[in-house]
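Why should sequence recovery work at all? Because a backbone constrains its sequence more than one might expect. Tight turns favour small or flexible residues, buried strands favour hydrophobic ones, and helices have their own preferences. The token representation captures these environments compactly. In the example below, the structure is given first.
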């Protein structure tokens, strides 16, 4: 083989290898393995232009056309990414860093002052504020003098409550209390057969405010000891009775106070 022919052969082989590398990069970009801007499209086109006049056989021309097609797809991906970034006000970090480095200290200060919107104010101690504070404490009477102006009522030690007073308040003995709890639990299960739960306020609402508070008190025991669950659904509270008590771990309990005012009772009753 003549030296010139050998050089041409090696030259064309190198060209095919470079074009295949371009094709592999384009394929990786289409498979979302690399950023579309990782490929220098201008350099890839210069490679194709470099060898285009030397292709003589059909396979080489097909390889060149395939490379052109893949490059056009990469350009479309770059265009789509640019549109997305511009629409979402995205700024490339490296480009932003370069812009900041080129700005002067004066311009950076102007930008900072223009975009500065403090939400906290720090007041420093000054001579006038110190004098004002000293004057306030100097004019303030001692605590014992100020305490005399307060009218304290006499302290009364708490007295024990009798069994009759407990019964009049609506609280019975422990056995009777357990029966009341079971009765409320059975009532809850009966009213929640269709929807598996019942609305909290409609369940505890009674004819009087005192009876409503008493029933809410019993319901709180059912929820605490796992006889029922308190669920928030659709902006409302619901009670879901359990088929059997489900004890809760002590560290997992959560206090959920519900205010039952006379005004609220009138609204739901």
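From this structural description, the recovered sequence reads:
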């Amino acid at each position: 083989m003549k030296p010139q022919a050998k050089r041409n052969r090696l030259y064309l082989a190198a060209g095919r290898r470079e074009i295949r590398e371009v094709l592999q990069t384009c394929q990786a970009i289409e498979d979302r393995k690399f950023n579309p801007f990782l490929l220098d499209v201008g350099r890839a086109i210069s490679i194709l232009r470099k060898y285009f006049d030397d292709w003589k056989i059909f396979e080489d021309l097909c390889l060149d056309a395939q490379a052109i097609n893949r490059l056009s797809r990469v350009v479309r991906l770059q265009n789509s990414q640019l549109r997305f970034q511009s629409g979402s006000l995205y700024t490339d970090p490296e480009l932003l860093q370069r812009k900041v480095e080129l700005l002067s200290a004066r311009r950076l200060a102007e930008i900072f002052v223009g975009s500065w919107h403090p939400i906290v104010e720090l007041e420093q101690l000054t001579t006038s504020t110190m004098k004002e504070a000293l004057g306030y404490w100097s004019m303030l009477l001692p605590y014992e003098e100020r305490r005399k102006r307060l009218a304290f009522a006499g302290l009364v030690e708490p007295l024990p409550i009798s069994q009759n007073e407990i019964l009049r308040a609506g609280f019975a003995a422990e056995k009777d209390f357990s029966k009341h709890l079971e009765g409320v639990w059975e009532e809850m299960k009966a009213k929640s057969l269709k929807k598996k739960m019942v609305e909290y306020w409609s369940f505890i609402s009674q004819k009087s405010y005192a009876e409503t508070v008493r029933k809410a008190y019993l319901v709180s025991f059912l929820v605490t000891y796992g006889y029922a669950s308190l669920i928030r659904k659709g902006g409302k509270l619901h009670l879901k009775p359990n088929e059997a008590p489900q004890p809760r771990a002590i560290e997992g309990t959560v206090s959920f106070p519900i205010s039952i005012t006379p005004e609220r009772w009138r609204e739901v009753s």
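A few observations help interpret the result. Strands lie at 198-199, 228-233, 236-241.
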